[in-house]
Amino acid sequence: MWTTAIAALVLLGSLTAPPTPEDFTGTWEVTKIVESQKGDFQWSLEVKYPKHMTLELRNGFLAGRYIDQWEYSSEFELVAVINQGHDLILVNGGAGTKNPESYSPIHHVKLVKGKLHGVVSSHDKLFEWVAERR
Q: Residue 126 and residue 132: Cα distance in Å, rounded?
């Protein structure tokens, strides 16, 4: 009985363990965009997001390349793993803004049930995206 209980705890621990950088690696394709309900502006038409992306480990750190919705290809300027491995922070390459006083968009990404869920924000939440492995 104790052996079964210990095995169940080990299995439960492995199911609830935070993702590792390796869990985020792979080739991903954005399959869904969810616009913010605030205002009428469709931010996903204005702000670049990674329509297709590849995340890989380079020298022990995550690095990524993406193709945005206009087929522009670049590397992410920043790929940081935060919150004990639960989240990624991505900034698109060349993520400068049209106005120097504007905030650059940040993609806060979580791995949920095998899919990447990104929330794009600058000074406010702009839109969300969901990506699946190819």
A: 21
DSSP E strand boundaries for 1-133: 26-35, 50-58, 61-68, 73-75, 78-82, 87-91, 106-112, 115-121, 125-133
Domain that holds residue 56: 19-133
CA–CA distance, 12 with 1 (Å, rounded to integer): 16
11 in any annotated domain: no
Residues paired with residue 78 on neighbouring β-strands, in sequence order: 91
How far is 112 from 86, CA to CA, in rounded Å?
Answer: 9
Quote the mean pLDDT of the chain. Answer: 81
Tens of pLDDT, residue by residue over 85-120, are 889 998 876 555 566 666 778 899 999 999 999 999
124 domain residue, yes or no: yes
**Looking at the domain assignment, is residue 94 inside a domain?**
yes
